[in-house]
Each structure stands twice: as structure tokens, then as C-alpha cells.
Amino acid sequence: MKKWLKIGFVLLTVLAFAVVVAGCGGGEKTGETTGEGEQQATTETQNLVFGSDTSYAPFESYDANGKLEGFDVDLIDAINEVSGLNIEMKTYDFKGLIPALETATIDGAISAMTITEERKQKVDFTVPYYKSGLATAVKADNQDIQGYDDLDGKKIGVQTGTTGELEASKVPNAEVVSFDTIDGAFMDLTNGAVDAVVNDFPVTAYYIAQGNDQVKIVGDLQTSEYYGIAIPKQKPEVLEKVNAALETLKENGKYAEIYKKWFSVDPPAELPGEPQN
């Protein structure tokens, strides 16, 4: 009798352990529950971390209450809604994003990053989600600099690691001063420490629109550029999911809604649609 009691106790212990293990599976799951409590159509949410230079309004910046906001921020929220991904944005210096992507320290980067041939050698890009170009900004009372072609021999402020820095380095006899954030470049422009700032047009225009009317944009845009979300080459499955989400958002109108919220105009009729790898 004692023998059978001992066997029964062992069996109950094993069954209890199996139930505990089954309840401790990793990953967040979503699905529908039937009346009998059985879960159907279960899918696992993929948690990802995307780096971003969060001092680049109107694409990403912190508001007065310390909340992250911007076009890129809203776009990531929308991607999360339609993709089954759970992407969290974390602050990185812009110059540190490509190295972090190369080592797959982060799962992606969304930071108003221009798709370039050099960057494509190191990371993959999604389909473009924004068309931009480089603008030249000077103090509002500056009459000598009428555009990019007048920067010869001038002191130019740029953000480190950007296409603005690359383009400014081509100006003959210019002294290029690089800053970790674009805010530093604008600050030196307003106090006269640099003669001009070469930077992405929407960011410069937004800076001026926030009441910084001591700065103006001069001349035409120097380049035509496309922004993409950068993904480590080691993570093609993430690239595929984000591309599919972007396509869905363009089709269902959510992308246009976010674009108009931040730029007060409709997005271009079409952007290049092929993956930029």
C-alpha cells in the first residue's frame, strides 16, 4: 500500500511540475479566447530596440514633459500596430547608429537617416519613407550668403556623421565645424560662431517655425535624398516585417495622416517602392 502511495505522489509531483513549466513559456503572446477558455490564432510578439538621435525635431525629440514625439515616433507606433512587432526607441548619438547596427547591438534605427551607397554597404534599408534635401541656413541679417555656392571660405556648422557634414566637406576653403547634435550647430549660428549651417531642410524649417526667426534658409536645396529605416544585415526577417508594415500604412492612409500632422502638407504622390539594399 505504501508503495502505491509513493508512486502516486511521484506522479502528482511530475504533473504539477509540467503544468508550471508550460505556464512559463517565453515571449508575449496575443490571440482570441473561446468561451471554453481555449486560445486560438496565437501569435508571438517580437520585442525590438531601434536606436534614434532623439534631438532632431520634427522627426524625434522630447517635449516639455519629457515625452518622445515626432514623425518617426508616430511612424514606429503605427508600424507596431499593424506588424505584430513591439519596437522600442532608444536614444543614441547619430554617429553611433551605424556601428551599433553593424554589430546588431540594436535591431534597427529610425533617425531621419538618408539612404546612401556607403551606408548600404554596412546595413540594409527599408523602402524610403521620406524625401528630403539639404538646406543652407544663415542668420536672418546675413546678406553675403545667398545660397550654398556662397559658402566658399566660410565656417560651416553641421552634425557629425550626416550627409550635411559630407556635403559641407566639399566646399572649397571652408572650415567645417561638426556637432554631436544639430541643436549645437544652430546655437553657434545664432551667436555668430559659424557663418552657416548645412542640414536637412525639414529639420531646419521646423527649427525656424518654432520661433527662431533670427535664422533663415537661403538658396535652393543642395541635394535630393530619401530617408529609410536601417536594419542590421543579420536580421532580414525584421527588414521584411517593417517593409510590409510600411506598405500597409501607405495603403490604409495612416502614413499620409502622420505626414500631414507633422508637415502640414500631403506626402509626395509616390516614393520609390523597391527595398534599398
Automatic annotation (TrEMBL):
MF annotations from Gene Ontology: ligand-gated monoatomic ion channel activity
Ranges where the Ionotropic glutamate receptor C-terminal domain occurs: 47-265
GO cellular component: membrane
N-terminal signal peptide: 1-22
InterPro entries reported for this sequence: Iontro_rcpt_C (IPR001320), Solute-binding_3/MltF_N (IPR001638)
SUPFAM superfamilies, A to Z: Periplasmic binding protein-like II
Solute-binding protein family 3/N-terminal domain residues: 47-266
Keywords for the protein's UniProt record, in alphabetical order: Signal
UniProt cross-references to PROSITE patterns, sorted A to Z: PROKAR_LIPOPROTEIN
Protein name: Amino acid ABC transporter substrate-binding protein, PAAT family (TC 3.A.1.3.-)
